[in-house]
Amino acid sequence: MNSKAEKYSQLIKTKASSFGFQNCGISKADFLEEDAKHLENWLKRNYHGEMKYMENHFDKRLDPRLLVEGSRSVISLSYNYFPEEKIPSLDNFKISKYAYAEDYHEVIKDVLREMVTELQQEIGEFSYRVFVDSAPVMERSWAKKSGIGWVGKNANLITKQSGSFYFLAEIICDLELIADHETTDHCGTCRKCIDACPTDAIVSDKIVDGSKCISYATIELKNEIPDHFKNKMEDWMFGCDICQDVCPWNRFSVPNLQDKFKPNHQLRNFRKGEWKELTQDLFSEIFRKSPVKRTKFSGLKRNIDFLAQSEDRKP
């Protein structure tokens, strides 16, 4: 059994690399005991703000065997999204790098499904489900457990080789595989992410008050943006990369090779003037396949108006 588990584990990692994943690690599908208390405390402090879905499926979040019946292993994977070129920020409202191009949920799920099809041709049929930032899966916890990286002070998963500009994905399956070991934490005494956050959302080491986060305000929040965000959003209209941009480990980021993650050419030509004149039709055209469509036109317009008002109030 061990030799088969070893063989399959190695095959999965080789296959993941050939399909463009940066890293692949394996964990035993088990109850995330350490995370249970952290999640409970985080929710109690209301750090999830209006993200009420975080309160749902508490047990499933912590035990993949409740999510995928008969599961034995969690295969964690990372997929680079660091862009070759950044969208100009001068006289511009900013979009998080992960949203420059096509929606990662669909792109990576397609890659995963193709990869699993090939694996089944070589291994034989096995039961599985794939996840890309979908369903109640504690992605960072599983990726940390599988040795892909460590959780930084900004609560992002960081790797020595390539920083943190990557998506996480999982295959939860009933294969018996060899579990990997966790890696060590390499943030040391660095506080760059904590000090750079304009809204003080990083409340302590590895703990983020989501309700203070610019990404939350511009994406998750459905109501009006609270006044305490005024003059603190640094022109971010969708998401925020500040805590990643200042992280020293991200000097090792290299451009991704996925054609579908190439920046939308229309975004390169927009500046504040064009964004302020954005219409529903133009929004639908530009963001048809983009994660930005999550905010809907009304949400993005709200963000742009909020930033524009803050500009008008500046002395």
UniProtKB/TrEMBL annotation:
It catalyses: epoxyqueuosine(34) in tRNA + AH2 = queuosine(34) in tRNA + A + H2O. Cob(II)alamin binds at residues 61, 133, 154, 157, 168, 215, 240-241. Its cofactor is [4Fe-4S] cluster; cob(II)alamin. TRNA binds at residue 222. Binds 2 [4Fe-4S] clusters per monomer. Residues 177-207 form the 4Fe-4S ferredoxin-type domain. It comes from the Bacteria. The keyword Cytoplasm applies. Monomer. Catalyzes the conversion of epoxyqueuosine (oQ) to queuosine (Q), which is a hypermodified base found in the wobble positions of tRNA(Asp), tRNA(Asn), tRNA(His) and tRNA(Tyr). This is Epoxyqueuosine reductase. It comes from Chryseobacterium taihuense. The lineage of its organism: Bacteria, Pseudomonadati, Bacteroidota, Flavobacteriia, Flavobacteriales. The gene is queG.
